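Hi there, hope your week has been kind to you so far. It would help a lot if you went through both lines with me. No rush at all, and the record is pasted right below:

***
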Amino acid sequence: QVRLVESGGGLVQAGGSLRLSCAAPGIIFSLSTMGWYRQAPGEQREMVATIRSSGTTNYADSVRGRFTISRDNANTTVYLQMNSLKPEDTAVYYCAVLPTIWGQGTQVTVSS
């Protein structure tokens, strides 16, 4: 059974940065589309960013220009670099091997 291992969440002040990592052993990583999603309290889960096997990326409008998704195929790891964080970025962030494998989530809290 594939288990995604997320790390890098935490508490940061507005304007700060965090880098999330997600290790995905046991899958054909280089052929997989990977994604980061988030869910704030009382809200539905939403797409933050995705990256295809080709390296093509897609971002939610709310994070474009501030967040960067990248992948390291050799180490089967996907990253989410988050800069200029805002309080509204506060959520549980989930890594996914799209469309069906999800991580356990990591909390990101941005204080004002």
